[in-house]
Amino acid sequence: MQPHTLFWMLLGLAAYGYYLGRKRALTVSGGEIRRLHSLPDYYGYYVALWCALPALAILSLWLLLDDKIILRWVLAELPPAYRNLPPDRLSLTVNVIANLLAGERQANTVDPALAEAAEHYRHLKQLGYHALTVLVFACATAALTWAHRRISPTLRARNRVETVVRIALVASSVLAILTTIGIVLSVLFEALRFFEMVSPLEFFFGLHWSPQIAIRADQVGASGSFGFIPLLTGTLLITAIAMAVAAPLGLLSAIYLSEFAKRRTRAIVKPILEVLAGVPTVVYGFFAALVVAPWLRDLGARLGLSISSESALAAGLVMGIMIIPFVSSLTDDALTAVPRSLREGAYGLGATQAETITGVLLPAALPGIVSGLLLAVSRAIGETMIVVMAAGMAAKLTLNPLESVTTITVQIVALLVGDQEFDSPKTLAAFALGLTLFVVTLALNLVALHVIRKYREQYE
Amino acid sequence: MNKTLETVQAGLARRRRRESRFRWYGRIAIFVSLAFLAMLIVSIVARGHKAFWQTEIAIDVFLDPEELTPPTREHLAKADLTGLIKQSLRQMFPEVRQRRRKRALYRLVSSAAPYQLRDYVLAHPDRIGQTVRLWVLAGADVDLYQKGYVDPETPESERRIKDYQIAWLRKLESEGRLVLRFNRGFFLNGDSREPEQAGIQVAFRGSLYMMVVTFALSFPLGIAAAIYLEEFAPRNNVWVDLIEININNLAAVPSIVFGLLGLAVFIGWFGLPRSTPLVGGLTLTLMTLPTVIIASRAALKAVPPSIRYAALGIGASRVQTVFHHVLPLAMPGMLTGAIIGMARALGETAPLLMIGMVAFIVDPPQSLLDPATALPVQIYLWADSPERGFVERTSAAIIVLLLFLGIMNLAAVLLRKRLERRW
Amino acid sequence: MNTVITERHTTPDLETDDHRTVGDYTLAEPRFTCRHVNVFYGDKQALFDINLDIGQREVIALIGPSGCGKSTFLRCLNRMNDIIEGCRVEGDIRLDDQDIYAKEMDPVLLRARVGMVFQKPNPFPKSIYDNVAYGPRIHGLAANRTELDEIVETSLKRAGLWKEVKDRLDHPATGLSGGQQQRLCIARTIAVNPEVVLMDEPCSALDPIATATIEQLIDELRSRYTIVIVTHSMQQAARVSQRTAYFHMGRLIEVGETTEIFTNPRHPLTEDYITGRFG
Ligand SMILES: Nc1ncnc2c1ncn2[C@@H]1O[C@H](COP(=O)(O)OP(=O)(O)O)[C@@H](O)[C@H]1O
Ligand SMILES: [Mg+2]
């Protein structure tokens, strides 16, 4: 039986278990529900959970592992000529088998030994499914029967079921931690492999980035150069431009909307501004590449400046637009968190509104605003699509906003999109970049979130 | 009046001017931001709205029995349908003799024309042997010209469409053989190298499947996590704090990092197939989950504690209290959060690039495990295409995407409105 | 001028009564004159036809149960109600015979003349010095640093805080105790050299010792400023004020010499309140 059929059957069985459990609970209670410890439904759930959970565990474990185990068996039975290949060549062989299985290659185009191996694999896998079907049903039925037998008026079915529910709830929230661990491990693992080939010193302090020049395949570490500094300066340049646009516009809009504007104006303008945050970044990228960049170039030409058609300015400008609502909504939060009493204190002394804002509200809200700006910076650094579409590919070490620069995220995309060889430093470099990106944004986020939290507590 | 007052009065005018300047800075900032938004939308709508229409040309094709019988799919795949189309074009413009001109003539119609002919023959096998009038797609150059994208001032040598072709078009137009029709193909076709044949069907399905996966996973998981953190977790516990910090931080991790995670975990470790909506959906789930959790927690917080006390007071267990009494009240708020999270996921591109959803795919995916693209990725791919005709398609795809996002956000807003009325 | 109250201990129906304030609300040489003041928050009326004069260099206490409109009235006197959206003030309020709600009157100037101290001490999150110097700075009252230092010092001395803080003027004001903070707020207010100081329950957030200090301070300040103080505590009103006005449900019920009001209230509502029957 195919696994998904099996899955639905299992659910069906569990539903039947629910029915049986409920019925038996009613029977043993002798028609008097009050004699039961829990409501009859819970006995149903109890049986259903026993029926489904262990069997589901077996099912998922099997599906996770079967390919790997079967592959190992199949490889072990290959002729020695294949078995003794170095790992990278062996993975090519595995690829051939995979292609045969997927029907992307005809059996008569390859070595008969491989064709046979593919056939063997298919056979084992089918056999495995038969075994799995038997195993899952045996387990489910056994558990169902056992749970069904245990039902008695004193069985604390509700508590048992609720324990399972609680465990599920905890597991869901632990998923957040698992995600972080997953990010760290997966990125770190590949990045470490990268640093085996390229020294961290070269990576973090090198001034030259050109990962594309692979001269000979066996010359792994020496292919291209992986100096990360030009990417960093490019990223920071674009981020700085973006912040130069977003910080004043976002701050001033927020101040105007929260302090000066009438309630009606605010109710209308604020959601419209927030539309800017809802526009997908790919749209901004298109806008930057197709509208803003040519416009800037023409403008530059008229002023006698040569502005690259992939200038940092265009990408930064558009990224700034994207970040405006981000800055303004965090500023808005920070300003609203300033207690009313401070505002009244300043007005009571005869301060004008502008004086109240610049002299009292902004200083009081400063931690909130600064951390908002930090979050915005972190977002700008990690933003991908705008720079992929509007910034350049060439890693130039320059701070001239009119030239084309590249960023960390652009290079991650460039390295990973298209054909990948999993072991080449080119691919692995993307993970090293990803790790750097993660660490930098993590640091910014943690500082910002910490400051925001402290700041909220201060005025609570 | 005392001296203080005089001093204050003397400074008043200056201070009032500063005040009004300050206000103007704010107004200007808002105006500039809104102007950017307007520019963005106007430039995209201006570039994209014409893509919803498409130039079609009526040709009179002789359905040659020798070529077309038997009218089966297999046979027609081998038949020289292009020849029939070319023949009918030659008959319409018998004066064209030069080889280069003839080629230019053939380019009036799209390379999709033979397929349209095939579909026609399959649908009407009884017409074989007759000469029928068939509406076929115009070529990309014709389409662009008809929609007014070609500046007639440019010298002919720099135009892709030549003066003699324009003369043909005028003739076709005068005979009523050249019209702009609603572009159904844009919604029904997959990707194509030819702009006039390219459509968003594959991308749309891909996005839809991913949204289904993302919603099906992130909504229950997000609610469960929120319930734990809000209703059951002990306060001031190191582990719980850690989870909280984690969730807040994950919400601010760049999306491309989630793409790397998806690549390493789902494709690298679990061995799931690349470019599939399943992997895309899983990756987006991890990305959306923090948003859903944060919104769901806020929704749970908004449920007044009195409801919990009331339920606990009549002897319900804590689990029962939460699931029977608190959850239904918090549901609209949670749904709002989920919709907003889904809207973000729908517009997300970068992580999908990492897991290989950037492929040229013509056939719509039939399951979660077929290769597909997504709407934003399709936009990215088209934006990268050099052909002029794709600019229009890209903008049109953006309009479609923005419409969907608009609808989702509107739904969220309406839901929130209803929620507010409740308490 | 006075309504004669015959039936005691019955609460008159304030909604329908053609209500008149008991006691003489006029003064010969008033600082403030308020006539027919009505205040609305949106549709809801918070003050009904208030008539009251406030004299030179006196302390007048506004008392009454909470929600009766004392703060609302106080905030009318320096137009703090302007910053509340939906708040509307009708009637005539004059400061030294100038209509403070007139178009030409700049609220900034008004607030420089009529300072305010709030219920909860609200020092700015700045240093002690900067708190006191804030008002003089924005109004440009000091030509140079020495003058500013002088203003800060005299204000802190008048507020009785100088000795405690003179060595740590650059410390953050939020580090002071509640009572010190409130005195700092008073210093901050008088640094602008106002003519009137409005105080809205200035001691309600303080402990008895701090309260006593502030009460003493108020008594000293009386020689220079007119002080209008809202208070919850009748003892406080009795201790610091010369005149007392009793508010009830948005109406000014009775006004008179403090000793008169407390020993011999004429309106039943006043008596109920004074004797602690409610409030
Ligand atoms: N900002 C406001 N918006 C609406 N109503 C208010 C506002 N401030 C006060 N009120 C109402 O006005 C009335 C008088 O309030 P207030 O002057 O604060 O009373 P007091 O200071 O005597 O306790 C109260 O009924 C109160 O509910
Ligand atoms: Mg009050």
Description:
The complex is a heterotrimer of chains A (460), B (423) and C (279). Chain A contains 16 helices and two strands. Chain A has helices at 3-28, 40-76, 80-83, 87-102, 112-150, 157-197, 200-205, 229-260, 263-278, 281-303, 312-337, 340-348, 353-382, 385-390, 408-416, 425-458, and strands at 209-210, 225-226. A two-stranded antiparallel ribbon of chain A has the order 1-2. In chain A, α1 runs antiparallel to α2 (40-76), α2 (40-76) packs parallel to α6 (157-197) and α9 packs across α11 (312-337). Chain B has 18 helices and three strands. Chain B is extended, with a radius of gyration of 30 Å. Chain C has 279 residues and is α/β, with parallel strands linked by helices. In chain C, α3 runs parallel beside α6. In chain C, strands 6-7-8-3-9-10 form a six-stranded mixed β-sheet, sandwiched between helices. Chain C starts with 29 loop residues before the first strand and ends in a 5-residue tail after the last helix. Chains A and B meet through α6, α8, α9, α10 and α11 of A and α1, α10, α11, α12 and α13 of B. Bound molecules: adenosine-5'-diphosphate and magnesium ion (MG). Magnesium ion is lined by residues 70-71, 200 of chain C.
Number of strands of chain C: 10
CATH homologous superfamily (4th level) name of the largest domain in chain B = MetI-like
Hey, which two chains have the biggest interface? Answer: A-B, 91 and 89 residues
Sequence of secondary-structure elements of chain C:
EEEHEEHEHHHHEHEHEEHH
* Major β-sheet strand ordering of chain B: 2-1-3
- Quaternary form: heterotrimer
How large is the count of helical segments of chain C?
10
Please tell me what the overall shape of chain C is.
globular
Give the percentage of residues in beta strands of chain C.
15-25%
